[in-house]
């Protein structure tokens, strides 16, 4: 009888121990799943915030509504806490800075009043008849436009812009997320418009350069009076007006 009682007690002890182990395992699993769940929720929330930031970047960096203070705003507003998302945020912000600088440079280059003032009687009077300063300005501006065109092509090229994230992490999910966010930022219509403006400006500069060379070679056939160019040779005047009309089209 006593032996049976001992056996029963041993079995009960084993059962209680097993029950405790199972209970501990269940509690540990619950904690793990809770932590994972919290991590996933925070991760998704942070990514949603970054998505909203990329959409805001698109609006603030548009050539029509460009916001000079936007970079300061995103620098002072850190979103992500987890290591991987922080790397994503860092890479994205660095891309936004470079993209913003190129858009800002594009706006200033395209709106440069020096280009529109080249073919004016005042410039003819000040820089003619050799037009050395004007021709030097055209050469410099052409190089500037070529560089700008290269920068625009780079900043919108996937192979180029992924370097901002790949130099920070090799995590494939993070890299794919980054690419999606960059696509939100890039305003393709703006890029097309800027490239079109660059092409038109280069045409204007080429025509301006041709005009200066032509006026320089025929420097005795014109002069400036009362802020107007006056021609003493009808043929030179006709050729000049043809060139000017190319720009006015």
Q: Output the radius of gyration.
A: 34 Å
Strand content: under 5%
> What is the helix fraction of residues, given as a range?
over 70%
Give the number of DSSP strands. 2
Shape assignment: elongated
Largest β sheet strand count, sense and barrel closure: 2 strands, antiparallel
Number of domains: 1
Q: On the 0-100 scale, what is the average pLDDT?
A: 85
Q: Helices, strands, pairings?
A:
Layout: H1 2-60, H2 70-75, H3 83-110, H4 113-116, H5 121-127, H6 132-155, H7 158-161, H8 163-166, H9 172-185, H10 188-217, E1 222-225, E2 228-231, H11 234-248
Antiparallel strand pairs: 1-2
Helix pairs in contact: 1-3, 1-9, 3-6, 3-9, 6-10, 10-11
What keywords describe this structure?
249 residues; mainly alpha; two-stranded antiparallel sheet; 11 helices; 78% helix; elongated
What can be said about this structure in brief?
This protein is mainly alpha-helical and 249 residues long.
């Amino acid at each position: 009888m006593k032996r049976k009682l001992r056996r029963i007690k041993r079995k009960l002890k084993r059962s209680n121990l097993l029950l405790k182990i199972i209970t501990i395992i269940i509690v540990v699993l619950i904690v793990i799943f809770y932590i994972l769940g919290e991590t996933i929720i925070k991760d998704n929330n942070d990514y949603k915030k970054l998505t909203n930031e990329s959409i805001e970047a698109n609006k603030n960096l548009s050539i029509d509504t460009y916001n000079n203070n936007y970079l300061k705003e995103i620098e002072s507003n850190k979103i992500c806490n987890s290591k991987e998302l922080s790397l994503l945020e860092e890479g994205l912000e660095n891309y936004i800075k470079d993209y913003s600088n190129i858009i800002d440079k594009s706006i200033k280059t395209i709106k440069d009043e020096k280009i529109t003032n080249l073919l004016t009687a005042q410039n003819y009077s000040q820089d003619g008849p050799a037009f050395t300063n004007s021709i030097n300005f055209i050469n410099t501006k052409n190089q500037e436009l070529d560089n700008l065109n290269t920068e625009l092509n780079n900043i919108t090229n996937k192979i180029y812009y992924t370097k901002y994230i790949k130099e920070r992490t090799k995590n494939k999910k993070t890299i794919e997320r980054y690419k999606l966010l960059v696509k939100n930022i890039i305003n393709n219509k703006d890029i097309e418009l800027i490239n079109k403006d660059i092409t038109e400006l280069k045409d204007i500069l080429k025509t301006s350069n041709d005009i200066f060379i032509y006026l320089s070679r025929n420097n005795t056939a014109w002069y400036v009076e009362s802020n107007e160019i006056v021609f003493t040779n009808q043929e030179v005047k006709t050729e000049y007006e043809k060139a000017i009309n190319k720009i006015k089209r």
